[in-house]
Write a structure and sequence with these properties.
- This protein has helices spanning 69-99, 102-106; strands at residues 7-14, 19-27, 34-41, 47-57.
- The protein has 108 residues and is an alpha+beta fold.
- The protein folds into two domains: 3-57, no CATH class; 69-100.
- The strands form two sheets. It has a two-stranded antiparallel ribbon with strand order 1-2.
- A hairpin with a 5-residue loop joins strand 3 and strand 4.
- Keywords: Coiled coil.
- Residues 69-99 form a coiled coil.
Length: 108
């Protein structure tokens, strides 16, 4: 993604009340790696005096794991087909084992 088009939003949530109490947003293209201080804002958007958050920023690359619906459907179909083949092979092996008699099953 384009760093200047990506925005990181940090929020502080009051768990008891279940609502955000402070937040701030940062354009990723403007942030350097390392320790940074984020000046938090009230829910009205004004900066809160003496309300800062110390964060550590580290960038890395990651393969985009997002795939579309068609790819997921195809993968599911392929897995189902492979499963069916394994089940058929398993059934054949069970039949061969049964045909060889009970003594063959006892030796394993």
């Amino acid at each position: 993604a384009e760093p200047n088009a990506c925005v990181l939003r940090v929020a502080v949530v009051d768990e008891e009340a279940g609502q955000e109490v402070a937040y701030d947003t940062v354009v990723l293209g403007a942030v350097r790696e390392g320790y940074r201080v984020i000046h938090l804002r009230s829910m009205l958007g004004t900066r809160i005096e003496s309300c800062y958050l110390l964060v550590h920023i580290a960038f890395s690359t990651q393969v985009n794991a997002w795939v579309g619906e068609q790819e997921l459907v195809q993968k599911l179909y392929d897995l189902k087909e492979a499963n069916n083949k394994l089940q058929a092979e398993n059934l054949q092996l069970k039949r061969r084992l049964a045909e060889s008699g009970p003594s063959a099953a006892d030796t394993s």
